[in-house]
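With this grant's support, we have settled on a layout for protein records. A representative record follows, to show the layout.
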Amino acid sequence: MSDDTERVEVTRHGRVLLVSMCRAAKRNAIDRAMADALDAAFNRIEDDDEIWAGVLTGTDTVFSAGSDLTAGGDYSTERGGEYGLVRRARRKPLIAAVEGVALGGGLELVLACDLVVAARTARFGLPEVAIGVVPTCGAIFRAPRALPVNLGRQLVLTGTPISAARAYEGGFVNELADPGRAVETALDLAGRICANAPVAVQACMTAMNNLLAEADGAGWSATEAAKEEIRHSADSQEGVKAFLEKRAPVWTGH
């Protein structure tokens, strides 16, 4: 499968749609083409009455490293927002099946899902502060909400990943799987959901998401304020430059 052509593979498993990011050569970093492909897959989950749940995964070695920096921030869609998912209004359950690392925007994709299955070797991290920027796709408010508050703060403030076991202990990961079996485990979990009445499941999903959305407005406002604070800082410019040049940044605190 060429990295330059098909970035997302979609396969149906009964009532469940499996959405697989296939850009392994770029650690499943999301650019315009990949965002559009993800958006189309999530549209299908929501719009196809024969589909009752979805599973989002990456490859055997990486879930996603987040944004493709060469995309220049061009990865939002009209219906789903960032990555076709982050701001999407959904009524059908979506499970993240994580192998390898989910970093930055990759973790923000996971945070936008409803349930999480992770291989025991998976890791979750928000490395943005290490390059002088801030998480912009929901992690500032969703990480402290989905995990114990201090663990969410740790992820945001240290930039250091945590293990799948630590995320499971914190209640973020619903089920741990042996390496290579995250998708299988997630499909089983989705199957248990789909054994129930879809109208009831979707009503519960809508109600829970509506309640959470009430707090999201303040979360997005706080995220915009953080973005504005660092937008023209010398440290943010130095951090991104150092990252692209593969060297340690030299911080000035300005």
Remarks:
- The two ends are 44 Å apart (CA to CA).
- The first helix runs from residue 32 to 47.
- Residues 64 and 106 are 4 Å apart (CA to CA).
